[in-house]
Fold this sequence. Notes:
Blueprint: E1 16-25, E2 28-38, E3 43-47, H1 54-61, E4 66-74, E5 87-90, H2 104-110, H3 113-116, H4 124-136, H5 152-165, E6 170-174, H6 182-197, E7 201-205, H7 209-215, E8 218-222, E9 226-231, H8 232-235, H9 238-245, H10 249-265
Helix pairs in contact: 2-4, 2-5, 4-5, 5-6, 9-10
Amino acid sequence: MTGPRDPAPASAEPVVILEDASFSYGSSTVLTGVTGQVPAGQALALVGPNGSGKTTLMRALLGMVTVSRGRVRVNGAAPGRAPRGSVGYVPQLSDLDPTFPVTVREVVQMGMYSQLGILRRPGAEARRRALEALESVGLADRAELRFGTLSGGQQQRVLVARCVAARPRLILLDEPFNGLDQPNREALLSIITDLKEHGISLIVSTHDLVLAQETCEQAALLAGRQIAFGPRDDVLVARYIDEAYGGHGTTRLLGLRSAAEGGESQ
């Protein structure tokens, strides 16, 4: 892919820092005790059952949920105050209206609106960056098609391109592999690898332990509180998964290993 920025130096400050952080909606605290870091150019998997706090943590990093305790920094600033365009968010496809009459290129250009300002129309530079971002996800030839005519997997890749066009340091992906066929899954895995090689950090919310193992160096297990946060192989172990999922860790790990072995044998 064409790199949106050079790889970050190894000594760079972590893109995300969480210190005993808790998060609330009004007076209701929904996630507590989160401590960990996301280094530049690495990916963090958020893993846990429904209602565990994965989406809450993502929204908190975007400045949409109150940090009721502890300290959180995103690109060196409080949540919601990071430099414009430095944080990208890819929602679940179910959150989108595919009938909205907009081209693929226009969707990608939307990622740059915060940098352009609401009264400025995208010019030649914005169009160039949009096409460059589409090239990075293998969809430059679809630029003038209506977004809603693409397959779900292609739409997901366009939304990643929308983030890439803004040249962020951090991209948040909310269940990005749900419903994808194998070709689009493999394409997205390749895109994530390329993004990390260009110094971009990612946080990936997922129920899929295979995905977490394939794409992420770090993992956070959540269940309304932090169960574990750290290197993937230290976190995704039966003891912690049992605690997060109520005693089903061993079954999940056996499924993970079987899937991995099946992939190796193909």
